[in-house]
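Justification of resources, computational component.

The compute hours requested in this renewal are based largely on the per-chain cost of generating structure records like the one below. Each record pairs the submitted sequence with a full structure-token output. That output is archived, and it is also reused by downstream analysis tasks.
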Amino acid sequence: MPWRMAYFTGKDQEKKMRKNLQIWLVAFAAVLVFFYGLDHLVMNMQGLPLNLDLTPSQ
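The structure output for this chain reads:
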């Protein structure tokens, strides 16, 4: 229905973009934490303790 289009002001679009950015950043951080934890889990199951830089410690 083109006659009922909503018009957004610049502030509305800015809020929406900021919220989208926050969602993307949180999702990216969650994926990083998940894969870092998964790597630790797999390496610990193999008996290899890890350093913080994800290399096997000597």
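The longest helix spans residues 10-45. The chain is about 60% helix and 0% strand.
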